[in-house]
Amino acid sequence: MEVSVYNINGEETGKKVKLDDTIFGIEPNDHAIYLDTKQYLANNRQGTAKAKERSEVSGSTRKIKRQKGTGTARFGDIKNPLFRGGGRIFGPRPRDYSFKLNKKVKDLARKSALSYKAASNNIIVVEDFNFEVPKTKEMKKISDNLKLSDKKSLFVLPEQNKNVYLSSRNLPGVEVVTVSELTTYKIMNASTLVLAESAVEVLHGTFKN
Q1: How many structural domains comprise the chain?
Q2: Which CA distances in Å does 133 have to 76, 78, 137, 196?
Q3: pLDDT band with cut points at 50, 70 and 90 for residue 14
Q4: What are residue 194's DSSP bridge partners?
Q5: What is d(CA 79, CA 62) in angstroms, rounded to the nearest whole number?
Q6: Contact yes or no for 170/134 (Cβ under 8 A)
Q7: Helix and strand tally (H, E) in the chain?
Q8: Distances in Å between the alpha carbon of 165 and those of 93, 136, 156, 161, 171?
Q9: Which DSSP string do the residues of 168-182 spell out, in sequence order?
Q10: Residues 162-196: pLDDT tens digits?
Q11: Residue 160 pLDDT > 70
């Protein structure tokens, strides 16, 4: 499929870019998208939640009352989980939530996400741009020109650009990533995908290798 190339003023330049159908036009695999998104979110979990169990709570180990003859239930020490201030039964412990996912599944998931965006016409290609110094106002202007001010947008660059990244950092709903940082979650989470013109070629090379 072919898409028009826009400049930073939101105007068509007359140029066209061809998006490879093996990347942007496949039959999306929803389960692959689910697995890759699940892994991304799981890998971002800290897993540091911890609750004290009976053996870790401070308190006396003295038996509260005799075992029999009281007419009530038997009790051990004050650290019993049934008492206020006692230990917690089967509380959370530090753990690693990450899991492995095959590279082919991850590639299929990203291609599926890109195909969804292409099918719904939510991909915009803009000419390569740069800022001499970080300017949030200039990035906001580009976003407005492309009619993205009220949408979540993901700008994809071919390589790191510190000035563009810093210019977008304080804008709500705007995120800048490189092709190597592009994930299924980020693609699906954005309303519109904005590809720098030179990033399209890098994307094609990434998925064909």
Answers
A1: 1
A2: 68, 64, 11, 19
A3: confident
A4: 124, 155
A5: 10
A6: no
A7: 7, 6
A8: 37, 10, 11, 6, 11
A9: HTTSTTEEEEEGGG-
A10: 999 999 999 999 999 999 999 999 999 999 999 99
A11: yes
CA–CA–CA angle 84, 89, 92 (5° rounding): 115
Of the candidates 53, 3, 48, 56, the residue with the CA atom closest to the CA atom of residue 25: 3
Count of C-beta atoms within a 10 Å radius of residue 123 = 21
Q: Is 199 a domain residue?
A: yes
Average pLDDT, the chain: 92
- Residue 149: the pLDDT is 82
Residue 151: CA count within 13 A, CB half-sphere: 17
The residue type found at 34 is Y
**Is the distance from CB of 188 to CB of 113 less than 8 angstroms?**
yes
The one-letter amino acid code at 142 reads I
Q: Give the number of other Cβ atoms within 10 Å of residue 188's Cβ.
A: 17
Give per-residue pLDDT as tens, 36-93. Answer: 999 999 999 999 999 999 999 999 999 999 999 999 999 899 999 999 999 999 999 9
Residue 193's CATH number = 3.40.1370.10
Range of the domain at 147: 2-28+107-208
115 belongs to a structural domain: yes
In a domain? residue 87: no
Task: Give Cβ neighbours of residue 203 (< 8 Å, ≥ 6 apart).
Answer: 23, 156, 179, 182, 195
Average pLDDT rounded to a whole number, residues 92-120: 94
